[in-house]
Amino acid sequence: AANPFRDGDVVDLTPVGSSSEEHGTEMKSADFFPESVTGVPEDDTDALLGDGFEGAEDLDRAEKGEAGEKDTPRTRAKAPTGMCACFSIEFFRPYFDVDTKEVGDRLLYALAPVGRQRSFRDVVAGNPDLYGPFWICATLVFTIAVTSNLSAYLSFSKPSGDDEWAYDFTIMTVALCTIGGYTAGAPLAAWSVMKYYGVPVGFVELLCTYGYSFAAFIPAAFLCMIPSTAVSWLSTGLAFGLSTALLVQELRPLIREHAPAQARAMLVALVVLAQAVYFVVVKVSFFGF
């Protein structure tokens, strides 16, 4: 039953027309519920009955149980909104609020997306991050810069005694512009086209998916150090296939459900075509021996 009393409420039982001093009937709510009835000391009775009962949250958590807590996706603070909000650290803070297990699960899924019972959207659970994509792209830029020079060194042959192999430092800059530009440009272009056709997908969600899809190119870059054209094409081709498979299987259900019938095949083809162009640029620019 609802508690009719609040903390410190004073109950006046004085008959009409009389004063409380004459009858001495001024009583607190604790006087109606003695310790013998409630099992709570009288000093604590008002706290138990008051509207500030702190045990309600604990009782609610106990009823849900630990299993229910684990099944509920972890939520994070929302990013601030406004015209200039993107220039503040608080705007990006929610997208970097992930732990090692979350990043590890998403990374493992991106490396083997085929044959999964759950989609990448289920793994992300409505909380896309930019922490994983940022470090994946940064690692890929550094890896390509190192392995590209190493592969060039291993395949280098002296045509004359005056020629010496030299490390190409410009590869780092080219890799940064190529990978960074595609990582930001491809999701932005895809988001614009999807929005035009009414496909409900967020820009940060696309940025997260594209970023994790590039994880397959990191081991491929190491395999490209082997001075073999066949190994180079095979490894980068496999990375292209895994990366594209992740994007297609995540976007195709949304496209099929929301996009007009005449535009569905075109949207999927655009995603695959952009990935193919990216694959050829990476292969020819950095591992074109």
Summarize the structure.
The chain has 13 helices and two strands, in the order βαβαααααααααααα.
In words, what does this structure look like?
- The protein is an all-alpha fold and 289 residues long.
- Helices cover 62% and strands 2% of the residues.
- The protein has a two-stranded antiparallel sheet.
- The longest helix is centred in the C-terminal third of the chain and has 30 residues.
- It starts with 9 loop residues before the first strand and ends with a helix.
- The relative contact order is 0.09.
Number of helices: 13
> In this structure, how is the largest beta sheet organized?
2 strands, antiparallel
Measured between the Cα atoms of the first and last residue, the distance is 81 Å
Query: Going across the major beta sheet, what is the strand order?
Result: 1-2
Arithmetic mean of pLDDT: 77
Overall SS class: mainly alpha
Along the chain, the helix and strand elements come as EHEHHHHHHHHHHHH
Tally of strands: 2
Radius of gyration: 32 Å
Helix percent band: 55-70%
Low-confidence stretches: 22-30, 44-59, 61-72
Strand content: under 5%
Shape estimate? globular
Q: What are the defining features of this structure?
A:
single chain; two-stranded antiparallel ribbon; mainly alpha; 13 helices; 289 residues
